[in-house]
Write a structure and sequence with these properties.
With 98 residues, the protein is α+β, with helices and mostly antiparallel strands. The chain has helices at 8-14, 30-40, 80-84; strands at residues 2-5, 20-22, 60-64, 67-68, 89-93.
Length: 98
């Protein structure tokens, strides 16, 4: 099982508390995790990725094992610790301002 943490506004939209656990088919990539997340919680479609292009939305970042995976290919494998369930895949709402 893959553990995915979401920012508060997406947890509220999905009506979940805490991390969500997902069954993700091998190979475990960012795309596979997000596909499983959107299949389980269809109300999240379009909030993390653009529906048409499947590109990550601005101000959304992906982290795992202390590393920013946001600019990695969506088809790159996630760290083994995420696959093993010992570390979460984090979806973070980035902030900007001046």
């Amino acid at each position: 099982m893959i553990s995915v943490t979401l920012p508060a506004h997406l947890r509220a939209l999905a009506q979940v508390k805490g991390a969500v656990l997902l069954e993700v088919a091998q190979p475990v990539t960012q795309r596979a995790i997000l596909n499983a997340l959107e299949a389980t919680y269809p109300m999240l479609r379009g909030t993390i990725r653009d529906i048409a292009t499947q590109e990550r939305r601005p101000f959304i970042r992906f982290f795992a094992c202390g590393e920013d995976l946001s600019h990695e290919s969506a088809d790159a494998l996630v760290p083994a610790e995420v696959v093993a369930g010992t570390q979460p895949f984090r979806v973070i709402g980035a902030m900007a301002g001046g």
